[in-house]
Design goal:
- The chain is mostly helical.
- The chain has one domain (2-61).
- It contains two helices and no strands.
- The longest helix is centred in the middle third of the chain and has 48 residues, at 14-61.
- It is rod-shaped.
- It starts with a helix and ends with a helix.
- 0% of the residues are buried.
- The mean pLDDT is 84.
- This is Major facilitator superfamily (MFS) profile domain-containing protein.
Length: 62
Amino acid sequence: MPLASLLAVHGNWDRVFIVGAVITIGAGILARTTLAPMRKRCIEESNGKVEKEELRRTKQYA
């Protein structure tokens, strides 16, 4: 891991673990604030398409 070796050159491995923790926390925050709403919207759109198709089929057989 080149970044880890660069961070550890001028000190100890504490910097490496801190940077790793910050990146992990940032990814978690990004997932909750960006990906969760996108996923919810995608599921809702998909459910809407399924419902429209079911309505179309029931009208076709009626």
